[in-house]
Amino acid sequence: MTADIWDVVVVGAGLSGLSAAHLLRKRDAKLRILVLEGKDRVGGRTVSLEIPAADGVDRWDFGGQWVGSTQTHIMELIKDLDLEIYPQFNAGKKVLHVGGPTSKVRVYQTSIPALSPLVFLDFTQLLWKVDRLCKTVCIQDLLRTPNAAELDSMTLHSYVEQNAWTGELKEQLGVCSRSVFGVEPSQMSFLFFLMYAAAAGGLMALLESTPGCAQEFKIKGGTQQLSECLAQRVGWKNVRLGSAVTAIWQVEYSNLCPVVAYPSAKIQYQPALPSMREFLTQNMPVGHMMKFIVTYQTAFWKEKGFSGEIVAGSSTDCPFCVTFDATSPRGNPALVGFISGQQATLWSTKEAGERRNAVLSSLERYLGPEAASFIHYEEKDWAQEEYSGGCPVNVMAPGLLTYYQPSLRKPCGRIHWAGTETAMQWCGYMSGAVQSGQRAALEVLAEVCHVALTAEEQEALVQGQTVKGPPQQTPLSRLLNGLTRKSVAIPVLTISAALLLAQVKWQ
Amino acid sequence: MTADIWDVVVVGAGLSGLSAAHLLRKRDAKLRILVLEGKDRVGGRTVSLEIPAADGVDRWDFGGQWVGSTQTHIMELIKDLDLEIYPQFNAGKKVLHVGGPTSKVRVYQTSIPALSPLVFLDFTQLLWKVDRLCKTVCIQDLLRTPNAAELDSMTLHSYVEQNAWTGELKEQLGVCSRSVFGVEPSQMSFLFFLMYAAAAGGLMALLESTPGCAQEFKIKGGTQQLSECLAQRVGWKNVRLGSAVTAIWQVEYSNLCPVVAYPSAKIQYQPALPSMREFLTQNMPVGHMMKFIVTYQTAFWKEKGFSGEIVAGSSTDCPFCVTFDATSPRGNPALVGFISGQQATLWSTKEAGERRNAVLSSLERYLGPEAASFIHYEEKDWAQEEYSGGCPVNVMAPGLLTYYQPSLRKPCGRIHWAGTETAMQWCGYMSGAVQSGQRAALEVLAEVCHVALTAEEQEALVQGQTVKGPPQQTPLSRLLNGLTRKSVAIPVLTISAALLLAQVKWQ
Questions:
Q1: Minimal Cα distance from A398: which residue of B?
Q2: What is the predicted ipTM?
Q3: A316 is in which domain, residue-wise?
Q4: Would the annotation count A496 as a binding residue?
Q5: Which positions are annotated as binding FAD (chains A, B) (predicted)?
Q6: Is residue A315 less than 8 Å (CB to CB) from chain B?
Q7: Is residue B103, in this structure, part of any structural domain at all?
Q8: pTM for the whole thing?
Q9: Does B387 lie at the interface with A, CB-CB under 8 angstroms?
């Protein structure tokens, strides 16, 4: 039991929570900030692990790995932390397999897959329609998007059924849905899909590894470093690992501000959150993704003129939806791939060996028999990761954004919401995590120390409707109570933190 | 801290959990059964409260209230508990208001609303189509429903948009969705809707108060009695109120069986549930419903020839979607109504007085100025009810049933699943709660005491694929550990129960 007193408690030591803590620390060194994290590590949905490789061992990202030059928030952070990036290798032939297990495997060089004239026409008209709709999306207030209710009442699947003509394109859009969101097109609101694409600057930005797109660069040494460096700056003594917040209670006579950067429905709130916020929290399912890295002695695919990029539709018997070259900056050859959505659900019920064999068989089929001679196969099923429950992002089912989205970023009493799901730029990405964490930090500063904000920042907060009113200047009296740490006989550690706060008024 | 040892721990003292406990107790009096309930009362989403009425005070149901003659499980329980039922009053004129706030309010006598010939034709063709689809639904294994993936990939809204021709019918289907599920047609998988209707015997059975339908009878004295009587039979000393289960840990060397009759995503499981089950648990949002009772000195609506039934579409400015006569068995006049779905979300943000005035204005408009002279207005917002979070039922968004439904009733290790969401008959209703609780109890008996099952019951369990294999006959050694009860300074009581079980094998 600690009797410490804190000004801000950040729930979740992922990129968003730590970005919030970091900005708060930078702006007001006197603020007493505590970051609570359920896992025994920082980084949330980013984790970098060492595995056997050609020259011994090397490090790969088993969670979020890519950044892009238009992702300004993460790019600034990378610069600030003095980390290095390198481009995703994408030169050479790409492989496309859709249309059933026995259909022809196609090979192409352009960024747009080798499509028949009809499918290409279909792709072009659909992309045009979707991008036109993307441009109408008002991310800040989705209800101002023309026809928002109708767009939010259908699944991505329904839109594609109505607007794509060819089965092949429909199957490829399934691959897009799985590789970007970890869910099937049937599980997502079409408006959510549009918002996500709009927040990235368009649909192609989500899918491509070309300049400005989501898969442009990787970070030398891995993305988990971002969180580790941030934790260093915040001060490791202020970051408590193995400390899962299970309840947040707001009481009178406290001004403590929690920043919740953990998109979980498992936290109990007292008093209960407003219905709108609670329904939203309970209705943002996370995707299901398994990521694998296979290391090799030589990058045989490059030698054969392949880029390492494979796209495989769900009608094939291939477990993964997409792979890329993952050769490390040190030159250790590797491929990275994803088993995702319904395929993750199906394949996660099988034995690890069976799954690995199926992945390798597919790699052999698409890239040649050399794929069988791998050094090491390592996979991570994010659904099994405690306090994540899935990857890469929490999505929204139909009928949520238009009814509940106004509460997505709106503080509840003194609780502020971070997490990439609440981002307005590159929502769902690492960059969105940083942006949302910084935005939440500014909201907190507006409450506890508004002189730390620039005039522009204050203006932006008001415009973003993320502050509740004029900044309060009551003396800071804070109390964190009931924080207990228990280690139990079975290998599980839980911490229940009750944050007791002041003068709750839901607005 | 208790060191008691139990054979079965039931999570949730609603109708389902208590039905499970009751059947277990009846079949094997030696079983040590503990029922844990977070609320300070039994009954779950049923609660009966006294409010001022014409002759003083009287009791009304503020949660589930109706039963029907085809709901065999609840009807048998009512008989077994020696409770009395009485029919829902439905004689006289009904009111229908759709098509915008200024449109004509229509009055009709039949069970099918006063529709124009075109809308009637539209209604007939849609009902025919939906009922034909209902008949193809395989409730036991939804994947065997023809075209299951496609039906599950669209929302009810998308189906209606594609298959109904008239705006008026579409609006009425919105009322159906809100009044039956507490959600909008956009928030629900069309396959889920079909399954729900099929489990009730057809779409009209959900909507009607005629014989065999969902709104046929009420229970004298209220529905909460069902749970109270069951708790009595199970033994109140075995029912612990104010005891919310926050975690279920399964460990070696214990044979304790938990029966989870609480459809919440807030329980932490150790080891983690299989991905399929966890995704399902995290993806069954509950509806949002506010129920109100208005008591009167006289049943003025009956005197004027009205039944008390009003249907109001969301295009009107009426907050409620539907009302019925709620005159008590003792003759105290009352009306009952529901504010539901998006309307509940909107109206719950307003002051109670404003909401009450809007309800009464609408009643005045539809039934006459006498509606203004009420004795008492009482409402219950189920979204504010702790450990329920909403009402009447947890629904499924698109893309869940076909991917995850196989795990809906499948035990996880020794954990068995009850709750009306898991029912195969009258899913979502009180009858489904009883049926699912009894089914879970039979599953437990098959494990711990299979001689207590009849041959038919064993056969049914195997057919229902709800048992994992041949019943185990290992000696019963059980352990419930770490059950702590804490009362804290602020008016909140939480209990964390860690259930430690044996030889976990997810199958």
A1: B187
A2: 0.84
A3: 48-91+215-222+287-384
A4: no
A5: 16, 245, 421
A6: no
A7: no
A8: 0.87
A9: no
